[in-house]
């Protein structure tokens, strides 16, 4: 029986990344209250949130494979998710300026008879940022739907001095690792 991938995510980035590698999917958006996960451990956090999102989406057919994910920035025992407002975003970027932080993504893949949880970590070092640079960046609105208040794939790329690990993990999905796991679930790129 051929398998069908369901992406349990509203993130345009995750949709673009799967499309980039020609994996066909349908979107089924999870509706969850992220504040119910209350932990300071970034690995626990991304795992629990990815699981919650994946379970919030109904499996409608026996051949469906559901993929859900969560991404956070971790810095000095703190977790930075999407900013609540302008001030929150300013404080995150001010904290990350000139330092190394980690970006964690948790990915849950589940089908009727199996389940896998992936956690991937990427280290990102920022150049020192001036207040003017941060304020201008906030005015572009790019930070507001992104964990840690920046987008490495956009203007946020100008902040990045060094990255160690998978770039795509920072954007929200560690692509090559996910593609390999999806094959185990019977999901392949078009024509493959
Ligand atoms: C650090 C960083 C995060 N992000 C994004 C990836 C995620 O979409 C977002 C973190 O929020 P998430 O809660 O992981 O995802 P989401 O709310 O966008 O989508 P859904 O829960 O429906 O799957 O931050 C970037 O796009 N670029 C970056 O450089």
TrEMBL record:
- Which metal ions or organic cofactors does this protein require, according to UniProt? a divalent metal cation
Could you confirm whether the keyword Hydrolase appears in this record?
yes
Annotated membrane-spanning segments are: none
Instruction: Pull one GO CC term from this UniProt entry.
Output: cytoplasm
Q: Which InterPro entries match?
A: ITPase-like_fam (IPR029001), Maf-like (IPR003697)
Please indicate which superkingdom the organism of origin belongs to.
Answer: Bacteria
- Could you tell me the Gene Ontology terms of the biological process aspect for this record? nucleotide metabolic process
Q: Tell me the compartments it is located in.
A: Cytoplasm
The record's catalysed reaction(s) read: UTP + H2O = UMP + diphosphate + H(+); dTTP + H2O = dTMP + diphosphate + H(+)
- Which residues of this protein are catalytic? 70
- Pfam families given for it? Maf
Give the matching CDD domains.
Answer: Maf (cd00555)
- Its name, as the record gives it, is dTTP/UTP pyrophosphatase
């Amino acid at each position: 029986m051929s398998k069908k991938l369901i992406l349990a995510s509203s993130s345009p980035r995750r949709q673009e990344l799967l499309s980039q590698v020609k994996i066909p999917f349908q979107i089924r958006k999870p509706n969850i209250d992220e504040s119910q996960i209350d932990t300071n451990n970034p690995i626990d956090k991304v795992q629990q949130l990815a699981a919650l999102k994946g379970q919030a989406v109904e499996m409608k057919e026996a051949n469906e494979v559901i993929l859900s994910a969560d991404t956070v920035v971790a810095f000095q025992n703190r977790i930075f998710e999407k900013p609540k407002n302008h001030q929150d975003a300013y404080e995150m970027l001010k904290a990350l300026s000139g330092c190394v932080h980690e970006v964690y993504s948790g990915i849950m893949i589940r089908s009727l008879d199996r389940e896998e949880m992936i956690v991937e970590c990427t280290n990102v070092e920022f150049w020192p940022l001036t207040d003017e640079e941060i304020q201008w960046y906030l005015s572009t609105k790019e930070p507001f739907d992104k964990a840690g208040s920046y987008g490495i794939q956009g203007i946020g790329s100008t902040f990045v001095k060094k990255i160690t690990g998978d770039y795509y993990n920072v954007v929200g999905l560690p692509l090559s690792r996910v593609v390999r796991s999806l094959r185990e679930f019977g999901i392949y790129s078009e024509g493959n």
